[in-house]
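Hi! If you just cloned this repository, the fastest way to understand the data is to look at a raw example. We've pasted two of them here, unedited. The first protein comes first, obviously.
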Amino acid sequence: MTPARRPLVIVAAVAGVATIVAAWLAPAALVDSRLAQITGGGVRLVDTEGTVWRARGNLVAGTARMSVAWRLEAWPLLRRELRFHLVPDASTVGESPRAGIAIVGGRVSFRDVDATFPAALFAAAAGPGAPWVVGGNVRVNAVAMNWAPPSSDGEAHVQWRQARLAAVQSTVSLDLGDVSLPLKADGDRLFGTVSNDGGDLSVRGDFTFGATEGAEVSLLLTPRRADNVDLVQVLSVLGTAEGTGWRIRWKRPIR
């Protein structure tokens, strides 16, 4: 190493150590402000313990609440890579989310994902303005998925268990049974076909998420019993009549 380059290397090393120390000391509560910004205040992180480096807390959206714990890797920060793990929370009884997540430039990678969230958290994360409220739990499984337009790849499976849907203006809740969505990432799109098992309705449709267009859902909800008057009234509020069912469309553009 030449004498001229030695000071630059020292400065880089000091900057790298400072970055790690900052992450080590920063309170986990800082994550809440960023999460609130992303979700428009729909999802918050409360009751945090620890630092950004290693911590736990509770995700809250309306009346939905779940515990999360995470661990941040140190050395990837020196390469401007964010790598962290959702880990089991010893203080929580029951299911705890598990996943490895890496953010490198514009690429987001998921590994060994097994997580169950209240459906209300997903709805709140989608932002305000949806004409319905949701209930039930959403389970996400993925061995590997990479979101890196235009070269995304991988697969995941989403299951909305004990799914319920209700119009904001109505007290009648729709029982959708268990809704399945196998997802595939390909190029600059994330997409899948929606179906269900059980419930008061047959659910068929499509989900797409484009790197530039945002998210779009199109569902055809068909009552299993044509004489269910209350159900028909709710569907008429939620969607548009199509054959023996009602079409619901929802779109959320990229902010």
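Ok, and the second one:
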Amino acid sequence: MILAASFDTGDINMWDNRALMYGDGVFETMRCIKQQVPLWSWHQQRLQSSLAYLQIEPPEFKAIEQVIKEQTSENQVVLRLTVFRQQQKRGYQAHSQQSHWLISQYPYQAQDQPQILGLANQRLSPQPLLKGLKHLNRLPQVLIANELVGQDVDDLLVLNQQDDVIETTCQNLLIVNDNQIYTPDLQHCGVEGVALTWLKQQLSVKTKKLKLVDIRKADAMMTSNAVHGFRVVRGIKSQATFKNNQPICDRISSLWQQLINSA
């Protein structure tokens, strides 16, 4: 359901835009609780950084905050904020730095049970121009997520062309060894989610190139994203099984719950 937009969504000509034609924009998927987004400041920071890189002026965040405060459901919901370049000329070259935005609302479905992951067949390629951007061109993720059809797993572990472990179809990864948290190096592909960015300000999280052998040796594993927070991984099908009683995992879950309860 569309909540609000900076343009007239009833004007059919507005849908001839660069978001649909070229994916010239970015988006944030956010958990909203009691008309508040607990990680809003982190979402805003990433939006500003990504838009600056694309040379698109940021939207009026106060107007967006007002929409969230006044128009979202008082129940938990998922919001998607899409920001794209305000231009309707055909062709790749950008002729404007102005932006349009659109907020949509979706039901929130809790997912807090331990997960079983599979291993994706398709690999991520280096994206030096787009690394770290939550841009609108998500076809690699769509193709990889399609592998979930018919599989008895919750998500897929995704590697790059060099066999480095990167992420899942929609979550960041954490492993624990000797009570130290590690997360994959996303220097060449993948996107650091705002939940992971938030955690780095709460606990020591080291970035490291991780191979499957590192995953197999881990004491514990978790996934993270802004909607479902931090979830324990019970195992990787045909690859590894993890313990669920690690104190550091309990600490992460406790910190996340405190954040959610503060909303």
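That's it. A detail worth noticing about the second one: The helical segments are 18-22, 40-54, 61-71, 139-145, 194-200, 212-217, 247-261.
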